[in-house]
């Protein structure tokens, strides 16, 4: 008997398929592009840092992108964004240092919170303002 294409939904236990990071964000034939993800990260927190942009020098791929960030304290970092999360890979723009073993953070908020007290304050104030606005509306 000839094999036919397998529909993963027909498998008895589809759990392993979903947890495999290569397929987690798989929809149709579009594989998640980390550059798009990086742009979204930048747009989310740009208001709370001095400068932040996706690196045009370091290579972006489906599985990795690099983001340059300058905190309000004027500290510069190059961040690596992968499925594992975000981590600092250098203490300057457009650099990577293989000797640097920094932890991954699940979110950009968590990473910036650990790097920049000024970020924490600005982000917290913005959150309070949104909550106040919601309170007025209801």
UniProtKB/TrEMBL annotation:
GSKIP domain ranges (all copies): 34-134
One GO BP: regulation of canonical Wnt signaling pathway
UniProt-annotated stretches for the region Disordered: 1-20
GO terms, molecular function: kinase regulator activity; protein kinase A binding
InterPro entries assigned to the protein according to its UniProt record, in alphabetical order: GSKIP (IPR037395), GSKIP_dom (IPR007967), GSKIP_dom_sf (IPR023231)
Pfam short name (any one): GSKIP_dom
Listed SUPFAM superfamilies: Hypothetical protein c14orf129, hspc210
A Gene Ontology term for the protein's cellular component: cytoplasm
Family: Belongs to the GSKIP family.
Full protein name: GSKIP protein
Chain's gene name: Gskip
């Amino acid at each position: 008997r000839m094999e036919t294409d397998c529909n993963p939904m027909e498998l008895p236990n589809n759990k392993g398929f979903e947890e495999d990071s290569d397929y987690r964000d798989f929809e149709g034939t579009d594989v998640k592009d980390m550059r798009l993800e990086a742009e979204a990260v930048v747009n989310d927190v740009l208001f709370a840092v001095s400068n932040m942009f996706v690196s045009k020098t370091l290579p972006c791929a489906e599985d990795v992108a690099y983001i340059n960030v300058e905190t309000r304290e004027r500290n510069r970092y190059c961040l690596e964004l992968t499925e594992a999360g975000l981590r600092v890979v250098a203490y300057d723009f457009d650099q990577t240092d293989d000797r640097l073993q920094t932890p991954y953070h699940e979110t950009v908020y968590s990473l910036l919170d650990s790097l920049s007290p000024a970020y924490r304050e600005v982000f917290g104030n913005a959150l309070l303002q949104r909550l106040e606005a919601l309170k007025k509306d209801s």
